[in-house]
Design brief:
globular; about 350 residues; ten-stranded mixed β-sheet; alpha/beta; about 15% strand
Length: about 350
């Protein structure tokens, strides 16, 4: 029985993908490792085939024409045969001891017939040049070592939102919610963690540092310069999230509020980078994204724009811009997200 399918989207990943795969091998045949070569121009596919030949019952390589990170995740989800599904980026890795604990839990859930929709674990920023690693945990937000629902969740603090690094979804749930990420687009991991949430009824939180999130390469999508260059893709993802759900139709208030705050963060990030670019076109795009939200749902627009960051993000004054940029700089230092 395959408990967990892990998709590893790879594009020109020859320098680091082997490490990602090797940290997953400790799971043995209970883990299915799907290396999705997204049209690489280096030795990614060859390394994948070598690993597949070494571990034919665990590793499978899938080659496709370049479609971007979202396309590779879509392929992994389509090919997955495990009961649960996780994405591990090719420059990241997992802690082997933590993975073994996760597998033991999933095995017991399946054995006991427990319908677990989403497992949440901590993740660690492996930031280049940083000796002290920042751990993102949920100890004050989520009940530990027990099955729970949205009713049992406390307030999510800034920087402690559920990200792709921290979740393992039930594979069937992802398929049932119709998850299909946009192709040739960065930042689709936000859609990956946001779209399934209304379908998630049961959760479990393990306070262990499973996922190691490498950050610091200049070519990474979260690099500040790259985020400004790709601002149109950030805006596209934000608009997609706006359109995904009618939040006021979500009956559970805690879930609705969490999703609204997540959307608020997306709006703020888009606004901040447009303000950092600072030209006339960026100013127009900032107004457009807020108008887009307003036209979609005036109630959500009002609620988000009344928050401190939301209000500042809408300003055109130098004071508003300085406020947002100062907040962004502080958040970067605290949470080390790029």
């Amino acid at each position: 029985m395959i408990l967990l399918s892990v998709a590893i989207p790879c594009y020109n990943s020859e320098a680091y993908m082997r490490h990602a795969v090797e940290t997953l091998l400790v799971g043995g045949e209970e883990v299915e490792i799907l290396i999705v070569d997204d049209g690489s121009k280096d030795a990614t596919y060859e390394i994948g085939k070598e690993l597949e030949e070494q571990y034919p019952t665990i590793v499978r390589v899938i080659h496709q024409e370049n479609g971007g990170h979202g396309s590779a995740v879509n392929t992994g989800l389509r090919e997955a045969t495990g009961i649960y599904f996780k994405v591990v980026d090719s420059d990241d890795w997992v802690k082997e001891e933590g993975l073994l604990q996760v597998l033991e839990l999933l095995k017991s859930m399946v054995k006991d017939g427990v319908n677990l929709d989403m497992l949440i674990c901590n993740y660690v920023y492996e930031k280049v040049g940083e000796k002290r690693k920042k751990v993102i945990h949920y100890r004050t937000t989520l009940p530990q070592n027990q099955l729970f629902t949205w009713d049992d969740v406390s307030h999510f603090k800034l920087g402690k939102y559920i990200l792709m690094h921290s979740v393992i979804y039930r594979t069937k749930l992802l398929r049932d919610c119709g998850l299909k990420l946009p192709e040739h687009t960065f930042y689709v991991d936000n859609i990956y963690v946001y779209q399934p949430l209304p379908y998630v009824k049961t959760m479990y939180y393990m306070d262990l540092n499973l996922y190691r999130y490498f950050i610091g390469r200049e070519d990474q999508s979260v690099n500040e310069n790259n985020m400004m260059k790709r601002i149109d893709q950030q805006l596209f993802v934000t608009k997609t999230i706006i359109d995904l759900h009618d939040l006021y139709k979500i009956k559970n208030k805690k879930l609705r509020n969490y999703m609204m705050r997540y959307l608020g963060i997306m709006m703020t990030i888009s606004s901040v980078f447009l303000m950092k670019i600072g030209d006339e076109e960026s100013c127009r795009k900032k107004d457009e994204i807020w108008e887009y939200l307003k036209n979609k749902d005036k109630r959500i627009y009002k609620k988000i724009s009344r928050t401190m960051l939301g209000a500042a993000s809408k300003l055109h004054s130098r004071a508003g811009q300085e406020f947002v940029e100062t907040g962004y700089t502080i958040a970067r230092k605290i949470f080390k997200f790029n």
